[in-house]
Amino acid sequence: QADMEMAKTIQSGCLPSIFPPFPEHVDKIDLYAKMRTAKEVGGDFYDFFVVGPGRIAIVIADVSGKGVPAAMFMMRAKTAIRGHFESGHDLAEVMGRVNDLLCEGNESSMFVTAWVGIVNLADGAVEFVNAGHNPPLVKRGGKTTEWLKERSGPPLATMAGVPYRVRSARLSPGDTIFLYTDGVTEAMNLSGELWGEPRFEKDFASRSCDARGYCEQTLAAIDAFAGEAPQADDITSLVLTVKAVG
User: What does the alpha-carbon distance between residue 31 and residue 20 come to, in Å, rounded to a whole number?
Assistant: First the structure.
């Protein structure tokens, strides 16, 4: 139990926890993220960091499995993604290099689904790679919603030498992007019914709040749906709203 508590502390310390994260950009973006593990430690993770003048990377990912092995693989993946960005590689190269690195010595055949994007604060342009992860949900101007369902490649650590294709989108002032792991849409009630994408989209569309509110109110809606059913998977979300560009 002491080892588990230490692992939990180490994992929590690896995730950004100061909000707002970029005081110098508080007039342009509103960003918040939250993770609730199903066990003492989990395989989900999120991250966000500056990759250049006016460019912010946002990451959400889910490691196969649970417990300490997943948490260890999670920290390896998170460190690799940030480290390759800091080395100056572009998005496609980062994902390819991280994939090859995670394939090395992966005797347990673990893998990571991930969505990694770079938001340009000058014009709202978003470059992203979806490595087998759940599609983000975007709300346009606080009204209509749409899914970014473009796939860019397989999960990380499944096959070395795989090229990852960079996709693009654009966020205008007032737009919100919601990143999440499958613990959100696959939350289950006592009847075995999944919360699912339709409920998630309807709930997201019905709300009007800041990034923190979207994360916390979505979690509350999931809890209300699940009732007494135990949480079977980690639940992680990252929400970013563009307030202004330029």
Answer: 7
pTM over 0.85: yes
Q: What is the pLDDT of residue 41?
A: 67
From CA 44, how far away is CA 200, in angstroms rounded?
Answer: 19
| CA angle, residues 53, 55, 56, in degrees to nearest 5 | 130
The runs of H, that is alpha helices, within the chain are 2-14, 67-86, 91-103, 182-185, 196-206, 211-226
Helix (H, G, I), strand (E, B) or coil at 223: helix
**Separation between Cα atoms, residue 234 and residue 43, nearest integer Å:** 7
> Most distant CA pair in the chain: distance in Å?
50
- How does 95-132 read in b/e, with b if 16+ C-beta sit within 10 Å? bbbbbbbbbeebeeebbbbbbbbbbbbeebebbbbbbb
Question: Which single residue is written with the structure tokens 């919360």?
Answer: 195
Cis peptide before 20, with omega less than 30 degrees from 0?
yes
* Six token digits for residue 33: 């993220």
The residues that bridge with 156 in the sheet, in sequence order, are 112
Is residue 36 within a helix (H) or strand (E), and if so which, with residue range?
strand 29-36
Q: What is the pLDDT confidence band of residue 4, given thresholds at 50, 70 and 90? A: low
Question: What are the tens digits of pLDDT across the range 112-139?
Answer: 999 999 999 999 999 999 999 999 999 9
* pLDDT tens track for 12-50: 778 999 999 999 999 999 999 999 988 766 788 999 999
Half-sphere exposure of 213 (CA within 13 A, CB side): 10
